[in-house]
Write a structure and sequence with these properties.
The chain has 9 helices and 7 strands. It is of the alpha+beta class. The protein has a 5-stranded antiparallel β-sheet with strand order 2-1-7-6-5, with helices on both faces. Helix 3 runs antiparallel to helix 4 and helix 3 packs parallel to helix 5.
Length: 274
């Protein structure tokens, strides 16, 4: 739409309806740009994909939450074997059972929970899964904690889960809005802070103040490795919950290296408010 020419130089032209000056338009565009939310899922995918170069058939999925600014990102939506990260859910299920019964853990239950998280003891996990009522009971506990895409297996390491679900589990352990009571949450966090030295890899590469549980498992059918890590890290005054799941690695060491690189990328994406 054009302008009508003024009859003399004494009057300034008035923009037609719907028109704005170039300066005003630029300002409005800048404001809209500043207000436009960043797609953190896409940003995380952009950060992760270059890390897969040379990784062969390995798959990886990751989820991160900055508990301070609320930034949350997820890369990949597929399901993965849990390997030993399922032990966090197993202990959470045990704690829910004890809460429901209005009691503390027995000495034997405490010993099993400690062995499962601190040393990743497999025999304790097998006994505990049976004691809480098997896969159906674990599924029920996961449901109470908000997990929607995790399916327990009698061979507990073959439980299938997603990175987003593992982030939900971490929020139930490290947050306050949870079916787990305050004492239960503190107990499980304390175990995850005491993981023995040889198992302190994974998400711990992304910061200090870690509390974690890792899982690693060679698949007999392919000889390839499942490598997973979930937990909390602190860096630069921020606290992040991070879950990285992966499979298809030719060696345990290559899987750990990729998981650690992805964890660092995830924490970087969920940085200060954009």
């Amino acid at each position: 739409m054009g302008f009508s020419a003024p009859p003399t130089g004494r009057r300034r032209p008035v923009p037609a309806a719907g028109s704005v000056s170039s300066a005003t338009a630029s300002s409005a565009t800048a404001t809209r740009s500043e207000e436009r939310p960043v797609d953190l899922d896409a940003a995380l995918t952009d950060a992760v994909e270059p890390l897969l170069t040379g990784a062969g058939d390995a798959r990886v999925s990751a989820a991160v939450l900055d508990t301070g600014n609320g930034a949350r990102a997820v890369h990949g939506g597929g399901a993965f074997d849990t390997a030993s990260v399922v032990k966090v859910g197993l202990v959470a299920a045990l704690l829910l059972t004890a809460q429901d019964e209005g009691r503390a853990l027995t000495a034997v239950e405490h010993d099993r929970a400690t062995a499962m998280i601190v040393r990743s003891d497999n025999a304790s996990a097998t006994v505990l899964l049976r004691a809480i009522g098997g896969p159906a009971a674990l599924d029920a506990a996961h449901g109470r904690l908000g997990l929607t895409g995790t399916v327990a297996a009698r061979a507990w390491g073959l439980t299938r889960t997603t990175a987003a679900d593992q982030l939900t589990l971490l929020r139930a352990v490290f947050g306050t809005d949870s079916e787990l009571g305050e004492e239960s949450r503190a107990y499980l966090r304390g175990l995850m802070e005491r993981v023995e030295p040889g198992q302190r890899w994974g998400v711990s590469a992304a910061g200090g103040g870690w509390a974690l549980k890792n899982g690693w498992m060679p698949r007999t059918t392919t000889g390839l490795w499942d490598i997973n890590s979930i937990g909390r890290v602190r860096t630069g005054g921020r606290t992040c919950l991070v879950a990285v799941l992966s499979d298809g690695h030719p060696t345990k060491e290559s899987g750990i290296a990729l998981v650690e690189a992805v964890a660092r990328a995830a924490v970087g994406v969920a940085g200060p408010p954009r």
